[in-house]
Amino acid sequence: MAAPAAPRARRLRCLLLPLLGLVAAGAAGDCGCSASRGGGDGREAAARRYSAAGGGRGQMVAIPGGAFTMGTDEPEIQQDGEWPARRVHVNSFYMDQYEVSNEEFERFVNSTGYVTEAEKFGDSFVFEGMLSEEVKADIHQAVAAAPWWLPVKGANWRHPEGPDSSISNRMDHPVLHVSWNDAVAFCTWAGKRLPTEAEWEYSCRGGLENRLFPWGNKLQPRGEHYANIWQGVFPTNNTAEDGYKGTAPVTAFPPNGYGLYNIVGNAWEWTSDWWAVHHSTDEVHNPKGPSSGTDRVKKGGSYMCHKSHCYRYRCAARSQNTPDSSASNLGFRCAADAS
Ligand SMILES: *[C@@H]1O[C@H](CO)[C@@H](O)[C@H](O)[C@H]1NC(C)=O
Ligand SMILES: *[C@@H]1O[C@H](CO)[C@@H](O)[C@H](O)[C@H]1NC(C)=O
């Protein structure tokens, strides 16, 4: 295992969270909270090396600036800081129509030689339900509050379920096992950047005000599936009624009002903001989150989200990981300035 330049003890964040009665599972152990590695360092600067080698604004949509209600006054998961509702203005910007796919990430790696943090650390967190018995037999630790997360040696974006897996038949699925630092490196290379949390949530809402989901308040309008989440009993039985047990192609499911696909479900998406749970109700313009922190905000939930454990496939929902964390349900999309 290639040691990172500055070895860091991996921190099992889930063990540190207060377990709050009935919401303990939601707080500590779901698709939202995977185990985090230790804190960040100067990798962001290193990522700048890949600047501007990429190309174009391919497959982005122009999001018209405006004001919206960020967060909610009816939080489903209080401790995530998805409240209070507050008035937020954002300037016009561009947003990737799709989550960054394995194919796009491979193009980036081919042209830069970039090595992801999971590759450097030599392992990444994988959802147990996706692992072969062979791989599982080799693992002797798990995240106490979320035993379905296992650290798997050799798991990375090319091998999402460990060395015996590959992405060859899912090049159009979202890239996984990319840390926040990796995501920043990719977006920078592409001449883009990560969206702020405000931009992400504004995008998610697709022009609707105060709705739970990108398409409205009803999870399955007319019985149709609008996102790749978990059906069945979590974590043992994903019936895949939406068509997918794991990730889906980034082009699957209907787009929202802004033409964005899989903005909730499928894979969690990194944003540029540091994580904090207390928000002022002051009306603000183009907020960029706290000026420092230990974790970065991720939004949207993933294929592992079920209402019982992780009701986080809502636009207001949010979660966090350290910037060097990676997992089998965490990806990203990029944004860009309008001018
Ligand atoms: C990356 O490089 C490999 C080896 O040359 C090639 O087979 C593959 O098609 C390339 N991937 C992309 C997305 O261009
Ligand atoms: C999973 O859930 C479905 C639907 O409730 C049920 O038919 C099936 O038997 C379950 N499978 C297992 C392995 O429990």
Automatic annotation (TrEMBL):
The keyword Metal-binding applies. GO terms for biological process: post-translational protein modification. It holds the Pfam family FGE-sulfatase. Oxidase that catalyzes the conversion of cysteine to 3-oxoalanine on target proteins, using molecular oxygen and an unidentified reducing agent. 3-oxoalanine modification, which is also named formylglycine (fGly), occurs in the maturation of arylsulfatases and some alkaline phosphatases that use the hydrated form of 3-oxoalanine as a catalytic nucleophile. Known substrates include GALNS, ARSA, STS and ARSE. Belongs to the sulfatase-modifying factor family. Monomer, homodimer and heterodimer with SUMF2. This is Formylglycine-generating enzyme. It comes from Otus sunia (Oriental scops-owl).
